[in-house]
Design brief:
90 residues; mainly alpha; elongated
């Protein structure tokens, strides 16, 4: 139960509340829910909890990838402390 309550809170921290960040979040969700994904397969056979779990893992994995790329680009121009404080999803 704690995990279910904590996940939305973490997503708000990761993605924030602005429209630009929400757009990136929506792109990630649509990518994770797309045809041919495990999410679609699990929903098709009626395993909805597996689909929800996969979606949660997929969103976190994709957000981490995006943040890593942005952080690496930031490091080319700035120091690590600045990049850690300013790297966010748009």
């Amino acid at each position: 139960m704690k995990r279910l309550l904590l996940t939305p809170f973490l997503l708000v921290l990761i993605f924030g509340c602005s429209n630009q960040k929400e757009t990136t979040y929506k792109k990630i969700v649509s990518q994770c829910k797309g045809a041919g994904t495990k999410y679609a397969e699990y929903n098709e056979i009626g395993m909805t909890q597996f689909a929800k779990n996969y979606l949660d893992v997929c969103i976190k994995r994709e957000a981490k990838k995006i943040l890593q790329v942005k952080y690496t680009k930031c490091l080319n121009k700035n120091n690590a402390t600045y990049c850690q404080l300013t790297t966010k999803l748009d």
